[in-house]
Amino acid sequence: MIIEDITQALILAGGEGARLKPVTKKIPKPMVEINNKPFLEHQLELLAKNGISDVILCVGYLWEQIKDYFGDTFTSKTGSKIALKYSVEPRLLGTGGAIKNAERFIGDFFFLIYGDTFLPINYQALGQLIIKKNTIGVTSVYKNLDKIVNNNIKVDESGYVIKYNKHQASQDMTGVEAGASVFTKRLLEYLPTEIPEDHTISLEIDIYPKLIIQRQLFGYITDIRFYDIGTFERIKIISEVLR
Fold this sequence. Notes:
This protein is of the alpha/beta class. It has one domain (8-241): Alpha-Beta Complex (Spore Coat Polysaccharide Biosynthesis Protein SpsA, Chain A), CATH 3.90.550. It has helices at 39-49, 63-70, 94-101, 123-132, 203-213, 232-241; strands spanning 8-13, 33-34, 37-38, 54-59, 73-75, 81-88, 109-114, 117-118, 137-142, 153-155, 161-164, 176-184, 217-222, 227-228.
């Protein structure tokens, strides 16, 4: 079964960017400039090239700067338009909490992008897998043959994710989560109806283990390298790549 292109993406862009201070004392992390324009603009250009026309921005810290710059519509270099919706977190809710907070905007299928990551893959090829495998989620897995970071994910011979630990690498891991996934709206069934005060919900810690046990998380293996703006050194690297 082949579905039409998935046209919605959700970008997690609400963090404070602590490792990029003092720059992020005055601007939110997605607005950090890469080659004279905000990093988020590079992400939106990439999504526009992949046929995405509806983007939910999960924002929080200094989010008004993002809204003031981009408004409600982004127009790419080629003239493609993306409608922008803002899901504002009243406080940091975690990656899973941010998705729950954006529930009113979410359609049947959506890509999930980390707000500090750039992965130039074919997103519609990633999206087709979720129908082919009939899973709740498919996440991109970088082969990491050049060992740019420690491996944090293990995929079995059939392609299903069987182990994931973002913060503690082990020898049997086979790749790196590359910062882009696709989900069905059924993911929301794994999130609490309400997030208690002073609690956060982590997609990676609280939800992925449940999906893995149920064989509901598939791996999209790629040798295309991902980049991020997590540190000043990494900003230098991606600046050269996007120049």
